[in-house]
Amino acid sequence: MNDSPVLVVGLGNPGPKYVGTRHNIGFEVVEELVGRNYANFSVHKRSNTEIAQLPGLIVAKPRSFMNLSGTPIRALCDFFKISPANVLVVHDELDLDFGQVKLRQGGGDHGHNGLKSTSRSLGTKDYWKLSVGIGRPPGRMDPATFVLKPFSKQEQDSVPIMAADAADLIEEHIRTL
After folding, report:
1. Catalytic (active-site) positions
2. Which residues are annotated as a binding site for tRNA?
3. Would you list which residues are annotated within the binding site?
4. Looking at the predicted structure, is the pLDDT value of residue 2 above 60?
């Protein structure tokens, strides 16, 4: 790993209204990662985020809405001098079955507005993305409505396991850098 820290950002929407929704699975993953390292988040005013600093790693939750996530991510990169190649963004993914996780570098945003904002602000799509599968909406439900709904009672039991699996994958990935 080079001298630059790795920035891991969980995407989600701020506020109690969005806690437990599919769109906030990125927050759940980074909260798991920070919690297992006995660390805490604190406000980083210059970037409008909450961050936790671990050895060689900065973990963040933007305090902006999902569609505006790129601005605080860019502010963190500038403040901590982190290149996009050392950024990993954790996000919900409609095109993966519930519970699946997939790590990739670069590539498209799959219509995800948080990733679009991040790519626009970083000036590149060449950063790491950890997609956490939330599945497709049932029937003809609008995907925008689906992602803002809480997980079903049946799914809620699996969310901590999903978050732990995703956090495991992040830790494995960081060891390879």
Report:
1. 23
2. 18, 65, 67, 113
3. 18, 65, 67, 113
4. no
